[in-house]
Specification:
Chain A: It is found in: Cell membrane. Chain A: InterPro entries: MetI-like, MetI-like_sf. By secondary structure, chain A is mainly alpha-helical. Chain A contains 14 helices and no strands. Chain A has one domain: MetI-like (MetI-like fold, Orthogonal Bundle). In chain A, helix 6 runs parallel beside helix 11 and helix 12 runs antiparallel to helix 13. The longest helix of chain A has 37 residues. In chain A, 33% of the residues are buried. In chain B, helix 2 links the parallel strand 1 and strand 2. Chain B folds into 2 domains: 170 residues, Periplasmic binding protein-like II (D-Maltodextrin-Binding Protein, domain 2, 3-Layer(aba) Sandwich); 208 residues, D-Maltodextrin-Binding Protein, domain 2 (3-Layer(aba) Sandwich), CATH 3.40.190. Classes of the chains: A mainly alpha, B alpha/beta.
């Protein structure tokens, strides 16, 4: 009886999963495998039906291109700095609004606003606010007497990466806050009460109790943000599409694929982006032992 | 019912059917800046022929339309009939555009500037018809030049000196936001234009010659770029390194720039009622680098072409002939300050009354510098990208311009061939 029931449940499970599996095949597996397939061809975008196989030539082309390594460096710099700042800020803000301060609900809602604005819109807003002639930021700087002329934030090749990181931090710190706050609220209250009774100072409570218990939540948040940052496209594209100082791997792949119409090389670059993201994901999961702590929880 | 009335009824019915069949509709892409003019042209066409042309607005940054076109054309989509095309795209889309030869009367074709139509002819096929001319021009504050008794500058150095003097005096007079010269140096296609103007007018060629030789690595080109680099921070705000047409136009039209390099449309926008500089703007061909060189405004004519996959080839050709014809080009010139590509319109009194500068721009067209899209064809984008990125680097960095040009030339040598 029980085996028949189990079998029936299995069948029902598969029945329910089939539509999902089909959709996944259609929207994820199929395009992905097409991209990988084209990476081994010399196809061009204006006539994708006409191609021949060229082996790993496209990958060699991408990996021996100094431009590729330049954008890899840009992407890694952007990802590591922005995610680091977002994590620290996110943790600080989450700790703050986890306390029972008056108007906490309002603060929690308000803090989500930057995250709710579409990237393109937010980038354009900041682009105008940072404009060297009309920007409100420069008006403020000049008004306060910090500088006698506006600063060209997005023109200066050493400042523009800072601008990109700043906008990203402004935009996605709320996401970090949200994930870390969720983790904070799951922490067992008794431990803190016990520590309190024992007279353990606040910073030590944070360092020895909160932080270790919070690591899985922070780890997941960092993983999500890092993967998101590695494939960043919109922010840099809207701010200055072709500026080499902020070009990311995704923009590189898009350039090869769309601007140069090199479907083969572009697909190889896109596959490399995929591998890069996968590699970093495995690295983060390994370093933070996310799989193990998740199992323990 | 008599036979006669049946015959009459049948004739009427057939006429109606034919009329219904004729009233077809095609789908047309139009630029964002001249969208209103396109709608007007479509209305005029409907009034004239009864056929409808649905206008689709393209993205504000024209190059963002490339992926859209590519998707439509690669899918052989019949959804779109007529495409609005930049001259530099013709090589890229040549395999997907309909041959208009024989579909448009030869006399209509011959009415346009020869070189402009010539750019639309690839491998003996006429794949696009010119809609208007675009050429880089110098706008200036007529009132300020008069106030300080300065003539129109003939060379870039004269321009820089005049710009510096007026800028400094205006600032001393309390106009602290005044700058001498605004142009475009963002890392984008527009910089290829701005840079080719500086280089060609200095005798440094046009990156790649018509027979495919990479000519960019020469002392005149280095001199031109070094000169422009010296402007940034002195007569040009540092922000120019991220200015496109619209961002730089904003500075000029706010009244904060003595000179301004842009396309002819700024004549229309700067003279819109309520603007700060209405009646204070003058226009001239670009200066030259040295005596004896040609003023080399970047040439950017725009075209209309038909998709090869259209289900209405004849109708699309008819519409293209209409919208690029004299009547519509005149309407564009009078209402939007777009320079016609039909030579006869340059002596049309109505056009000249509205656009007195046209007689001055005719020499600008004659002396214009074309980007090397003819030779590079499908490789144009990567050549241009390599070029403007390198120039952006030279303008913004500490790098040695001469050495950079040498490495750029080596790079272009590898990229230049069309496939």
């Amino acid at each position: 009886m029980s085996t028949r029931l189990a079998r029936r449940e299995h069948r029902a499970a598969w029945l329910f999963l089939t539509p999902l599996a089909l959709v996944m095949l259609l929207v994820a597996v199929w395009p992905l495998s097409r991209t990988v397939f084209f990476a081994f061809t010399n196809a061009y975008l204006d006539d994708p039906t006409n191609y021949s196989m060229v082996g790993i030539d496209n990958f060699i082309e991408v990996l021996t291109d100094s431009g590729w390594w330049h954008v890899v460096r840009n992407t890694l710099v952007f990802t590591s700095i922005s995610v680091a700042i977002e994590t620290v800020l996110g943790l600080a803000i989450a700790l703050l609004i986890n306390e029972a301060i008056p108007g906490r609900g309002l603060v929690r809602a308000a803090i989500l606003v930057p995250w709710a604005i579409p990237v393109v819109v937010a980038t354009k807003i900041w682009d105008w606010m940072l404009n060297d002639q009309f920007g409100v930021i420069n008006a403020l700087i000049v008004g306060l007497g910090l500088s006698d002329h506006g600063i060209a934030w997005t023109a200066n090749s050493s400042l523009i990466m800072g601008v990109v990181i700043f906008i990203d931090v402004w935009m996605t710190t709320p996401f970090m806050v949200l994930l870390i706050l969720a983790g904070l609220q799951l922490l067992p209250g008794e431990i803190f009460e016990a520590a309190h009774v024992d007279g353990i100072p606040a910073w030590k409570r944070f360092w020895s109790i909160t932080l270790p218990l919070l690591t899985p939540a922070i780890g997941v948040a960092v993983l999500f943000r890092a993967l998101d940052a590695l494939r960043m496209f919109d922010l840099a594209y809207v701010l200055s599409a072709s500026n080499e100082n902020i070009m990311t791997v995704s923009i590189y792949a898009r350039d090869r694929l769309i601007s140069y119409q090199e479907l083969g090389v572009g697909s190889a670059a896109a596959s490399c982006v995929f591998l890069l993201v996968a590699f970093v994901a495995i690295l983060i999961i390994g370093v933070l032992r996310l799989d193990r702590s998740a199992g323990a929880a | 019912m008599s036979i006669k009335s049946i015959a009459l009824g049948a004739t009427m019915f057939l006429t109606m059917m034919a009329g219904a069949a004729q009233a077809e509709s095609i789908s047309v892409f139009c630029g964002a800046t001249d969208y209103d003019l396109c709608v007007k042209a479509a209305d005029a066409w409907k009034a004239k022929t009864g056929n409808e042309a649905k206008i689709n607005k393209m993205p504000a940054l024209l190059d963002d339309a490339i992926p859209l076109y590519q998707q439509l054309l690669a899918a052989k989509s019949p959804d779109v009939d007529v495409l609005f095309l930049d001259v530099i795209w013709l090589g890229m889309f040549k395999n997907n555009l309909l041959d208009l030869k024989g579909k448009i009367p030869q006399a209509d074709i011959d009415a346009h500037f020869k070189s402009t139509v010539g750019a639309g002819e690839i491998n003996g096929e006429l794949i696009a018809m010119p809609a208007y001319m675009d050429v880089g021009l110098m706008f200036y504050r007529k009132d300020l030049l008069e106030k300080y008794g300065k003539p129109e500058p003939k060379t870039w150095d004269e321009l820089a000196a005049t710009a510096k003097e007026i800028q400094d005096k205006e600032r001393a007079a309390g106009n602290g936001d005044m700058w001498g010269y605004t142009w475009q140096a963002k890392s984008y296609e527009g910089l290829t234009c701005d840079a080719i103007e500086l280089i060609a007018s200095n005798g440094g060629g046009t990156i790649i010659s018509d027979d495919g030789k990479v000519t960019i690595d020469n002392p005149e080109a280095a001199e031109a770029i070094t000169r422009a680099k010296g402007w940034i921070g002195t007569i040009t705000p540092e922000g120019v390194l991220n200015y496109d047409e619209e961002a730089s136009r904003a500075v000029f039209e706010a009244g904060n720039s003595v000179f301004h390099r842009n396309w002819p449309y700024v004549w229309g926008t700067s003279q819109t009622a309520g603007g700060k500089i209405v009646g204070k703007v003058g226009m001239m061909p670009l200066p030259v680098g040295k005596e004896g060189q040609k003023s080399s405004g970047c040439l950017g004519p725009m075209y209309f072409g038909a998709s090869k996959y259209t289900t209405h080839p004849e109708l699309s050709a008819e519409f293209i002939a209409f919208i690029t014809g004299p009547e519509m080009q005149k309407m564009r010139a009078v209402e939007g300050a777009y320079s016609p590509s039909i030579s006869a319109l340059y002596s049309d009194p109505d056009v000249l009354a509205k656009l007195p500068f046209l007689k001055d721009t005719a020499p600008a067209f004659a002396d214009s510098a074309a980007r090397p899209s003819g030779y590079t064809g499908t490789s144009y984008n990567r050549v241009s990208q390599a070029f403007y990125r390198a120039v952006h680097d030279m303008l913004s960095g500490e790098a040695d311009v001469k050495a950079d040009l040498t490495s750029l030339a080596a790079k272009l040598e590898k990229l230049k061939e069309s496939r």
